Predict the structure.
Amino acid sequence: MTETQFTPRVFSGIQPSGNLHLGNYLGALKRFVDMQQPDMETIYCMVDLHAITVWQDPKELAHSTRELCAGFIAAGLDPDKSILFNQSQVPEHAQLAWIFNCVARMGWMQRMTQWKDKAGKNQQNASLGLFAYPSLMAADILTYHATHVPVGDDQKQHLELTRDIAIKFNHDYGVDFFPITEPVIEGAATRVMSLRDGSKKMSKSDPSDMSRINMTDDADTIAKKIRKAKTDPDALPSEIDGLEDRPEARNLVNIYAALSDQTVDQVLAAVGGKQFGEFKPMLAELAVEKLAPISSEMARLMGEEAEIDRILGKGAEKARAIAAPILQQTYEIVGMVSSKQG
Ligand code: TYM
């Protein structure tokens, strides 16, 4: 099967589970904005059904969903150019996920590192939804026949599983129906690390708020977190090899490169030889310049809840217009009798 038979279409999602951070921004959201091009259909989703695979307080979930929508728009996604919506409002995601639950194998799910990490030692007590999570993710993507999925590095395995599900479905039913999606994991910051420990991913669940820059942080907080970020005593190298075994230095240089739309080589050519005492204020200034306008726009938009709900509602309608016929065709392929009149 060729991938070119499908019209290029971008889909990606972020969980509305609070603490949208710099890793989400550089690994995903900023790249969603970059892919918003006139010749490309772009669909971006707040995946609230995924969020409830672990407990969410209902009021906080609603707040986080609207805040994430505000973050999408403040970062540069334009509801007239991209489809923005929350997952639960397009029931085709959950419906296709059921079909995929019957395609995917238990062994595939058991191999997922995110399942192992999140369920931890107490797998018996984890929700069934957490286990089936990647099958819903495959449905998110494939109910739009999406061909390209921009994500951070930690989602790579889930996207491989999405490809496996598409391949097995097509094979089992003897069709060329679902595209074999391309993961788009690009740029200098596909894995932003904690500011306190360069061996750990920056994460919304890290108990230390100093480990991450939140997209809601104000300018002073952003600058303070960068000033206090863990580093080593050496000067910055002029070439990338010099960052080997220096995870904290590497992380700050990656962040600088991604925020300034440069390659790591370009950054090192300019800052090689500088001490962190000089580099950190440069990074703080850049981060404040790029992030503070987003956080203040998010705060402004959060004052316009009705407008956010209107944008989400319109987005869901547009998304459904694409998803419903694809689900209908899937049902026909699988052999579900349609009893609808007319
Ligand atoms: P989530 O909500 O955990 O993260 C959203 C996006 O942010 C990226 N990301 C990072 N990138 C770089 N460095 C980091 N430290 C970092 N932390 C998070 C993630 O890779 C992701 O791209 N399963 C997904 C949501 C999802 C989805 C989808 C994505 C559901 N359905 C369909 C793509 C397509 C997740 O939990 O992302």
Observations:
- Residues 78 and 321 are 19 Å apart (CA to CA).
- The two ends are 34 Å apart (CA to CA).
